[in-house]
Amino acid sequence: MRPSRDVVLLITHSGDYFTIDRVADALSKRGAQPFRFDTDQFPIAIQLQAHLDNSGSYHRLKYGDVSISTEQVQAVWMRRIWQPQLGKELAPQFQQACIRESLTTLDGFWDSLRGAMWVDDLQRINAAENKLRQLRVAREVGLVIPRTLVTNDPEEVREFFFEVKEKMIAKLLTPLSSGMKGSTFFLYTRLVKEEDLLDAQTLRYCPMVFQEQIPKKLELRAVFVNGKLFVGALDASRYAAFTQDWRRAKSEDCVWQTHELPTDVVDCLNAFMARFGLVFGALDLIQTPSGEYVFLEVNPTGEWGMLERDLGYPISEAIANTLLSKSAILLDI
């Protein structure tokens, strides 16, 4: 079985569901051929060949009984790149070398698809994932940001803690799985108490982000797709007494509501996304009790399934339309 010329490559992992299925279905309804690439299954269950000589190059990907060539791919949805799962039968001393070679091979495969429409380009994603750059750009385009300190100096943290009148939260610059154990600093976004500062010496192993705690009326997830915004809001009063991170709240306390952002905030978010040249992004903001909107961060490959599921937003259709469009909004960083 060979897919048609109109292949859209969906880069994800084998544990992904709902969003990947909704986008694949939307693409199929538009006459395209979605091809799911579970990156954690390479190289064990997926075969990849790259043939190069002085006359050109040829790349082929085979997954199960389906194979594609790069010439068939018109668009790529960059959902997730997962680390290869090599199995316990491979000796531990070879694991890291094989993972490194597999990821490098994938980098070459991505390069072979540079002529396709990407949502989003990997270089743009990597540039936008830097949280410090995000905050700088957000401030420059007119968004309000929290007072922020990033440091590995325990004394600086203690001074900042009292500067913000003991209303301080801590988080990491990069995502972290909930299974990690150790110091109290290595956790989800959380409120810092004075006794936590006794453990601040662990910062010498890992710099962290410290921010002034912003009073919350609503927490917002604004999903940007090629110039369109789909905004969901959570009533923070339902979980704020128990956690600073809505992802740790009970499901019954996370009831998504539709929300419309003011025009000036929308304009700033559009300018922010244009600065990074991103077609897609999941933006997090807070609305304070006084009505002010505060920017927190953008995840260039962030989650949105809960908004489509609970609010009926046609986000998967917007992504499919963008993948198949010939004139998506692509701006320079």
From TrEMBL:
Source species taxonomy: Bacteria, Bacillati, Cyanobacteriota, Cyanophyceae, Nostocales
UniProt record, GO biological process: SOS response
A single Gene Ontology CC term: cytoplasm
Protein name per UniProt: MvdC family ATP-grasp ribosomal peptide maturase
Keywords (A to Z) from UniProt: ATP-binding, Nucleotide-binding
NCBIfam families: ATPgraspMvdC (TIGR04185)
Keyword Repressor: no
Chain segments annotated as transmembrane: none
Keyword Secreted: no
SUPFAM superfamilies: Glutathione synthetase ATP-binding domain-like (SSF56059)
Single GO term (MF): ATP binding
Superkingdom of the organism of origin: Bacteria
A Pfam entry, by short name: ATPgraspMvdD
Record-annotated ATP-grasp domain positions: 135-324
